[in-house]
What does this fold into?
Amino acid sequence: MKCLLWEVLGMAIWALVEICSATLSPSGVNYEVVALFAIKTALHDPHNVLDNWDINSVDPCSWRMVTCTPDGYVSALGLPSQNLSGSLSPGIGNLTKLESVLLQNNAICGNIPAEIGKLENLQTLDLSNNKFDGDIPSSLGELGNLNYLRLNNNSLSGQIPESLSKLDGLTLVDVSFNNLSGRPPKLPARTFKVIGNSLICGQSSKNNCSAIYPEALPFTSNNVRGQYAGTKKHHVAIAFGTSFSALFLIVLFVSLVWWRYRRNQQIFFDLNDSYDPEVCLGHLRRFTYKELRAATDHFSSKNILGTGGFGIVYKGSLNDGTFVAIKRVKDYNAAGGEIQFQTEVEMISLAVHRNLLRLWGFCSTENERLLVYPYMPNGSVASRLKEYAVQLKLPRRS
It folds into this structure.
């Protein structure tokens, strides 16, 4: 009931804002400001992370959790893990330049707005670990540039829209742990997760959930009787087959143990050159460890730019000749592991200011966490001030 009230309130506020903004001249208000303010109003923000979202503002690019394109349009909305509740306003459909929406790990409820289908530039939509209910909008099938869709761990019901099957660019679709039903459509995504939907993957269901667990092979009692009936030749064949299978399993087990041993002995391991389908961090580039290791000449001490409380910063040169600054984060396991690191990277990437370096990319392996920034040949502000500082003698200081 509380969620329904938030959703009705959000719809009413959005309608009111639409009516009011329609009476303004095209130059009188930024329509993206109106849309973002409608989103803010429909959400309950206990930590006031949206405090500087002001309806009277002309430019939303300086707002927290908002990223803009070079020409000033809102391109990313990132509010993961902010304890937000309430509902998601349909006004999000008016942010037509959006490429990334990250609202995971909150408590947002109500329906997923069908207006999201208007965002033709959207590449990443992550609404996982919330309280969304109702159907998955079929309008999501209009998102021709969509790569990553995460709707897992909500309370969504109904069928998975058939319209998603026409999205050829999909890499990951995760709708696991909802209340979905019906036969899943055939999607072009490399990874398609539906586990945790009892009406799809339950024991009585005949749907193919092999993306999550393998189907059992048919094996009847008649087969068993047939195998042990017959002549001595059949018994010999069975014994040979059993011995061969046991030998194969032993070899497989030894190979697996050896592989894990070699893997643990490696200093690093490389990820695929393409993005990991399990990781979605919007516009950031995911580098391989091998690439950054080569860029810094094996993290040579001669390439150290500075040392801080969070790690060492190295100068590096990528394959295309671009110079970068690579921060090698220390105590990478102390902050909560891979999920916490991804969340922190998302938050850093949303920090936009003319005096701050914009995060270019990252690298995450079992043993390393690295952040990649553009290289500034003039150094930091502190180093420049120190270089030109006037040394005061003792009498002058007193």
The chain has three domains: 2-201, 221-265, 285-384.
